[in-house]
Amino acid sequence: MPTGSRTTSHRRQHTWTLARWASPVILLALWQLGSAVGVISQEVLPAPSLIAEAGLELVRNGQLGDALRVSGARVLQGLLLGGVIGIGLGSAVGLSRWTEATVDPPMQMLRALPHLGLIPLFILWFGIGELPKVLLVALGVSFPLYLNTFSAIRQVDPKLFETAEVLGFSFRQRFANIILPSAAPQVLVGLRQSLGIAWLTLIVAEQINADKGIGYLINNARDFLRIDIIIFGLIVYALLGITTDAIVRSLERRALRYRS
């Protein structure tokens, strides 16, 4: 690429980056200004400065740290359990037509159920402790991973399997050298989808019979009419979702460097 074209492209990219950062800052400034002049009611939508003060209050008294540890543990446990189930079943169905005929129909029926609608049943079956919250997250997580793993394995180039057969590869060698590298990109996409569902599920699960976690902070703030803490809690959920997605994207870039 000529030097002039490269410079123009760099400047255009820099401009787009500035625009992406400037738009949220401008929105926050307008929000703060609207609150200051009384256009936006503090009883409906507190100013960003008040929300930030509420967040600092939670940080200083230690409530936010405790809530993050509890909520993070719930998501991690649900993600691990749902990941094992989703990737395990997806691999089995993708590798075997017989397993597809027996396992895929019930999985598709379960997928059609709104998993958040199962909360009353989960409470009756498993009580109101940690188990139903973790199981709800696991249930929501498992289906994107199952579908993406199943689809990724079925889309592996058949010529690669033919070559492996000619070379006398064992199943373990085929899985490690053909199936895993070929399926990894789509499985990682499924993981990103699952993380979004995990945090969404947790938001609902933690606001039902929870005595700790970010959802508990939000419920407690509702009882005391602390809209600033409620909004701060929702922002924390959003930041956690964005952060975990960025981590997976970073892992994806590292794991798939060979494609470059």
UniProtKB/TrEMBL annotation:
Its main location: membrane. PROSITE patterns: ABC_TM1. GO terms for cellular component: plasma membrane. It is found in: Cell membrane. It is a multi-pass membrane protein. The keyword Cell membrane applies. Residues 64-248 form the ABC transmembrane type-1 domain. One of its GO terms (biological process) is alkanesulfonate transmembrane transport. The chain crosses the membrane at residues 21-40, 75-98, 110-128, 229-248. Belongs to the binding-protein-dependent transport system permease family. PANTHER family: ALIPHATIC SULFONATES TRANSPORT PERMEASE PROTEIN SSUC-RELATED, ALKANE SULFONATE ABC TRANSPORTER-RELATED, MEMBRANE SUBUNIT. This is ABC transporter permease.
